[in-house]
Specification:
Elements lengths: L6 H16 L8 H8 L4 E4 L5 E4 H7 L5 H18 L6 H6 L1 H16 L6 H11 L3 E2 L1 H14 L7 H10 L3 E4 L22 E4 L11
Antiparallel strand pairs: 1-2, 3-5, 4-5
Helix pairs in contact: 1-2, 4-6, 7-8
Length: 212
């Protein structure tokens, strides 16, 4: 059964979970009230020139696949770090610092899910790490993949099938030329992989795959 989560549903879920964590018998707060109880009202800079600023919820969202367990895990890791630092709320600094830990969690989750379809997934992740870019061409991936295949490091010689599986599990998406938007299947379940467009790696995997 495919469950689809959008931002309003995710915020309602988080408001409920946070409210119950604050007071099991208390009222269910609105998302904004619940969020501000545990998070500081700060923004995080994005991009090469750090001009774009987004709030902490949207920053966390960029690393997720819009699944409830992704948000819950990220917040749990933030809360643990906040307690260690003896802060009163989760700060922007903490959200950025735990990014690597969450990235490793997401990689392990995906490994468990995709391994039956792609037994070579660990080696395929190594290929992406070797390319060391978040945005690259189909040819770059195929050339690197086939080197691994000739060496016997990966067994599956059907690189198109591999790319399709990576797309189906939202490890990669498409990035049309001259566009600032990427297309991932977790955002649009009806999306189809385009073999004529560039590949982009999901941001939640950047740190785990050592992508700069």
């Amino acid at each position: 059964i495919a469950l689809e989560w959008d931002e309003p549903k995710l915020k309602a879920m988080l408001a409920y979970r946070i409210s119950k964590a604050i007071d099991e018998n208390g009222i269910i707060l609105s998302f904004q009230e619940a969020w501000m109880r545990i998070f500081s009202n700060q923004t995080i800079s994005l991009g090469g020139n750090n001009r774009k600023k987004i709030d902490l919820f949207n920053y966390i969202t960029l690393s997720t696949q819009l699944r409830p367990r992704d948000y819950i895990k990220y917040i749990q890791v933030c809360a643990e770090k906040t307690l260690l630092d003896e802060d009163t709320k989760i700060t922007a600094r903490t959200v950025k610092q735990v990014d690597k830990g969450f990235s490793n969690y997401m990689k392990e989750e995906i490994l468990d899910e995709i391994h039956a379809q792609l037994p070579d997934i660990n080696e395929i992740f190594s290929i992406i790490s070797q390319i060391r870019k978040w945005n690259f061409t189909i040819k770059e991936f195929k050339d690197t993949y086939m080197k691994y295949h000739k060496q016997g490091t990966v067994k599956n010689g059907n690189v198109d099938y591999v790319l399709q599986m990576l797309f189906d599990f939202s490890i990669i998406g498409n990035r049309p030329k001259n566009r600032s938007i990427s297309f991932f299947r977790y955002i649009n379940p009806e999306a189809r992989f385009n073999f004529n467009e560039n590949i982009v790696v999901h941001r939640g995997l950047f740190k785990a795959l050592q992508i700069l």
